[in-house]
Amino acid sequence: xxxxxLIYMDNAATSWxxxxxxxDFMMEFYRNNGVNPGRSGFDAAISAGDLVEQTxxxxxxxxxxxLPERTVFCHNATDGLNLVIHGLVSPGDHVISTCLDHNxxxxxxxxxxRDGIIDVTWLExxxxxxxxxxxxxxxxxxxTSLVAVNHGSNVIGTVQDVAAIGGLLRDEPPLFLIxxxxxxxxxxxxxxxxxxxxxxxxxxxxxxxxxxxGVICVREHVxxxxxxxxxxxxxxxxxYHLEEYPWRLEYGTGNLIGIAGLWAGQEWIxxxxxxxxxxxxxxxxxxxxxxxxxxxxxxxxxxxxxxDDHLATFSxxxxxxxxxxxxxxxxxxxxxxxxxxxxxxxxxxxxIGTFGLHGTVRxxxxxxxxxxxxxxxxxxxxxxxx
Length: 386
Hints:
Helices cover 37% and strands 15% of the residues. By secondary structure, it is of the alpha/beta class.
């Protein structure tokens, strides 16, 4: 099958295709300036370093961060979340997180709890898939050092009210971390207005960058212990890893071609009218898709009776057919790509009752889906359910 014939509805895993300008800019920039950024004084190295710093500043503005140097590049959200979590918590700390979170948060916290270093409270969502801010307040302890919340669920698509949670934590000791992997680029985020202390996002989803990119935004009052050490290209005679940001959390030569892709992704997002405009178009398609399948016999959808505070991501099951087999039929018979299984978020599936069913079929729309794709998907699910 020609990939151009594929109806791609797996954007929660990675956005695809990327805007053409992203492909073009990455290739052109890397071909002409693909040297070590900022390490030398010749023109190509200066241009490469300039692009890195301009992209850093641009992403800092995008998330309304405090200082550009506290917007740090990482390999992906998993990498960034590990740097943040391991660099913040100390023995005896208590951490609050949610059952909606991805394994990139669950597993680091589970390892620390298993090893007796921290204690973790997992908050369950309500029946509609939302974390109640009052539950966060009720879980606070004297030794709570961190509250980590998934901004947008990669399974059921609900977008949490992080501004409300941040507001109630404003005068409380714990730091507030959000995993914005599903929302960055498609939901407007202002970490200062939301009282978010730390944001981590991956670059290869709605930010329209390539795989192998990610970003950490650290507010000015937050200090993260470095948990790695290595080259920075700065102050090479100093025997320890640098304490200044961004080098405090950046190690070795960065992903220059990936950062070029993030720059071009920012350009494309601006051209589309910004995250809110992109989100509105995606949700119009999501509403049409849900409207076409929600009432089909033998089809169950989860936490999407209303689409307020929601991404264009939702999960379903077809009675009597394993999710994996539904996904195979969608792919082989209808050329529609979805994601099946537990989607790296097992606690979420426990909450919605699909863990024992081996997960769900997840549809996640993106900016390049069309009304014709929606019609094909509705007909495909109807045929499979029938």
